[in-house]
């Protein structure tokens, strides 16, 4: 997977890393971690909408000739 072209993949990796840090590092401010994970979730929802728009616009274009 090319991570440079996939912000949703980066958001998933960031969320997973923060969840691991929250579990294994004691005395971290839980509110800040939850806010960060919420922001990363918002990023993944936004990137999903962008990808859906690109897919829908490609659906309505004529395909190139393969000859």
In short:
With 67 residues, this protein is mainly alpha-helical. It has helices at residues 7-24, 30-59. The chain is elongated and about 60 Å long.
Oligomeric state of shown chains? single chain
By DSSP, the count of extended strands is: 0
**Distance between the ends:** 29 Å
Radius of gyration: 17 Å
Topology order in helix (H) and strand (E) letters: HH
Average pLDDT value?
A: 79
Structural class assignment: mainly alpha
Largest sheet: none
DSSP helix fraction: over 70%
Q: Work out the strand percent.
A: under 5%
Low-confidence stretches: none
Number of helices: 2
What's the shape? elongated
Task: Give a quick set of tags describing it.
72% helix, 2 helices, mainly alpha, single chain, 67 residues
Structural notes for this entry:
This protein has 67 residues and is an all-alpha fold. It has 2 helices and no strands. It is elongated and about 60 Å long. It starts with 6 loop residues before the first helix and ends in an 8-residue tail after the last helix. The mean pLDDT is 79.
Q: What is this structure's SSE topology?
A:
Layout lengths: L6 H18 L5 H30 L8
Helix pairs in contact: 1-2
